[in-house]
Design a protein that fits this description.
The protein has 170 residues and is of the alpha+beta class. It has one domain: Cytidine Deaminase, domain 2 (3-Layer(aba) Sandwich), CATH 3.40.140.10. Strands 2-1-3-4-5 form a 5-stranded mixed beta sheet. Strand 4 and strand 5 form a beta hairpin. The longest helix has 12 residues. It binds zinc ion. The site of zinc ion has 7 residues, from helix 2 and helix 3.
Length: 170
């Protein structure tokens, strides 16, 4: 649990975006040099962050969004309200290969449009309802807001295999 937030309205959006940008600084992406951070807001107001973590065995890399989800679920969370995602390329002089990866704060202004990949949308679907809010950097200095129902229509979820009762995105 990183932060307690008021979730009565969307006033947490700005904080969530800032947390995603901050989490991005911990990205381990020496192969793609594309750094992503995510900040996941749980229903109890706690925020759980994640970053992308790559591997020399390329397919084993994990996205920031799933890192945040798996971290939160492993800490006992099952209900979520929103996630913010901040992603973009690491400048050549800030890559791990450059030997200056510790200067990661310099990455903060390199955000591009970074919606969640298909795998992460499916993981969101496991734990979230259709109104779950997804905020992702738009590449123009702001964040685009979508719902899970918008990003994953006609989806397959846990209720299809009778594991749990859950809202179905329309
Ligand atoms: Zn992903």
């Amino acid at each position: 649990m990183d932060t307690e937030l008021n979730r009565q309205d969307h006033s947490y959006d700005q904080v969530l975006q800032e947390q995603a940008v901050r989490a991005r600084r911990n990205s381990y992406a020496p192969y793609s040099n594309f750094a992503v951070g995510a900040a996941l807001l749980a229903a109890d107001g706690s925020v759980h962050t994640g970053c992308n973590i790559e591997n020399a065995s390329y397919p084993l890399g994990n996205c920031a969004e799933r890192t945040a989800f798996f971290r939160a679920v492993s800490e006992g969370q099952r209900n979520f309200t929103a996630i913010a995602i901040a992603g973009g390329p690491v400048p050549p002089d800030r890559t791990m290969a450059s030997g200056k990866a510790d200067s990661a704060a310099g990455r903060d202004d390199q955000l591009v449009c970074c919606p969640p990949c298909g795998a992460c949308r499916q993981v969101m679907r496991e734990f979230c309802g259709p109104d779950f809010r997804i905020l992702f950097s738009d590449g123009a200095g702001g964040f685009t807001v979508r719902t899970l129902a918008e990003l994953l229509p006609e989806s397959f979820g846990p209720e299809a295999v009778n594991v749990v009762e859950q809202e179905v995105p329309e």
